[in-house]
């Protein structure tokens, strides 16, 4: 269940929290919307990484007995993740208000992948065991984040 960073130091996947070069986006209102969205995604990615690391730790030989002790922490991380996921979705309005339709399309894809991962992580936090659903969302999340990273102009 290990997360491997995507080529190019993918934000948040595998613990990286690189920042996108916001000035390349053009208009100031779009840059501000991007900065808020990117910051929130970074916050979500850190929580996601912590929860996945916790599950990986419990999966190590001899650590299975720690699951009951660590489950409250995992569930707290999952709850924070859900809150930040909702904030990320709310920030999509910034791109709509900036009439940044091209950015909005990519950001909506990333927000959808974050929503799916957040739901899968809630299940992972409850069990702290093997979670095929959580594993399956990683590829979708990585692809959506790479797609968002390719955005360089406001349309």
> Which class best fits the helix and strand makeup?
mainly alpha
**Broad shape:** elongated
Poorly predicted regions are: 1-23
CA gyration radius, whole angstroms: 16 Å
User: What is the number of beta strands?
Assistant: 0
Total count of domains = 1
List the secondary-structure elements in sequence, H or E: HHHHH
Number of helices: 5
Please indicate the percent range of residues in DSSP E strands (runs of 2 or more). Answer: under 5%
Question: N- to C-terminal separation?
Answer: 38 Å
* Biggest pleated-sheet summary: none
Helicity range of the residues?
Answer: 55-70%
Average pLDDT taken over every residue: 77
How is this structure best described in words?
The protein has 155 residues and is mainly α. It has one domain. 69% of the residues lie in helices and 0% in strands. It is built from five helices and no strands. It has helices at residues 28-59, 67-90, 92-97, 101-127, 132-149. The chain is elongated, with a radius of gyration of 16 Å. The termini are far apart. Residues 1-23 have low confidence and may be disordered.
